[in-house]
Inverse folding.
């Protein structure tokens, strides 16, 4: 089965999901390109060989970058820019990002900044990349000040999700990618939660009975959100589709990643962040305890972490103050009033924050 999901907006594009869909790659590219830079991680080199075969007739340059978050640095971006410059890349040429979320984030940022913007097609090869990083047009790199604080909104020309690549994803990484799918279930599509609860063990494998549906539902949710609010300017309220809704669980998650020097998997940090966000919703008097506890139950059924170090709270609180979701001196959290009913909680009382963290502290 091949599914094509259109991301609406000023610059609409398609996300193609399925097995043996590499032949769809040319349909996502504009015919004006003469040169293509394929930015990829070492772990997907063999798959990149197959990608390059679909680019017959084009001048292809392969740019290998470090694995994981190490790729998302100014130094790596500069190496890519120098390569594009030495090969004479023009505005009609393009970039293809292949690999996990770090690779697609970096490739998108390079494309957004080269000559103030060239086309990029994203080919994510991890679950997290498919359902989160590659879709939506957010690009970025990390700095010492925090995660993704330097970046640009730059929608891709298309996204290709070749599901066969998931079979080579290590089980812990695959499980971490499920955290973003769980997030989608709580903020917008509760059927996702039912599918996981129906078969949590099978959800942990690419060959699971609901894998294709879980991925396409998560992508469709994000497509609707980012298509309506690319630059995260809309207000979030009950029933709203502002892009900020996608930050559910991410304020604490990004603080954890920074404290761990990006050594934690993003999905693992999001898992803890989701439990914290649910607890915060509950302590703020907005969410019922049953729905809050359902977060922990589903995430733990997938083997994902739901606790973090108790002594870390002062560091995490400081990191959250410089998170990109903060507005001025106001700390903002996406919280829930119920399933698929999100809103913003601005500047919560410190005692409420500490009570919520106590529920994830170990």
């Amino acid at each position: 089965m091949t599914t094509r999901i259109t991301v609406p907006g000023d610059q609409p594009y398609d996300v193609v999901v399925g097995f043996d869909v590499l032949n769809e790659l040319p349909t996502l590219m504009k015919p004006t390109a003469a040169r293509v830079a394929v930015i990829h991680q070492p772990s997907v080199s063999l798959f990149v060989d197959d990608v390059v075969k679909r680019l017959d007739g084009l001048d292809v340059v392969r740019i290998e970058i470090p694995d994981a978050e190490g790729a998302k640095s100014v130094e790596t971006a500069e190496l890519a820019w120098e390569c594009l410059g030495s090969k004479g890349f023009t505005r009609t040429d393009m970039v293809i990002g292949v690999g996990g979320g770090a690779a697609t984030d970096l490739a998108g940022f390079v494309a957004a900044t080269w000559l103030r913007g060239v086309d990029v097609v994203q080919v994510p090869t991890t679950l997290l990349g498919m359902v989160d990083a590659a879709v939506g047009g957010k690009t970025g790199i990390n700095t010492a000040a925090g995660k993704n604080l330097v970046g640009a909104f730059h929608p891709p020309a298309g996204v290709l999700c070749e599901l066969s690549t998931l079979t080579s994803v290590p089980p812990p990484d695959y499980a971490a990618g499920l955290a973003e799918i769980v997030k989608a279930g709580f903020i917008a599509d509760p059927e996702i939660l039912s599918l996981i609860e129906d078969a949590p063990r099978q959800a942990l494998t690419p060959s699971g009975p609901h894998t294709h549906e879980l991925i396409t539902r998560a992508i469709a949710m994000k497509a609707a959100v980012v298509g309506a609010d690319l630059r995260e300017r809309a207000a979030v309220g009950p029933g709203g589709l502002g892009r900020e809704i996608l930050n559910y669980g991410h304020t604490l998650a990004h603080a954890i990643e920074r404290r761990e020097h990006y050594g934690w998997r993003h999905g693992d940090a999001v898992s803890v962040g989701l439990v914290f966000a649910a607890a915060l919703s509950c302590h703020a008097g907005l969410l019922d305890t049953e729905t809050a506890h359902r977060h922990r139950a589903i995430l733990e059924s997938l083997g994902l972490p739901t606790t973090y170090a108790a002594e870390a709270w002062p560091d995490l609180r400081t990191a959250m103050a410089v998170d990109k979701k903060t507005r001025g001196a106001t700390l903002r959290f996406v919280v829930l009033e119920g399933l698929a009913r999100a809103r913003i909680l601005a500047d919560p009382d410190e005692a409420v924050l500490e009570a919520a963290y106590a529920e994830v502290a170990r």
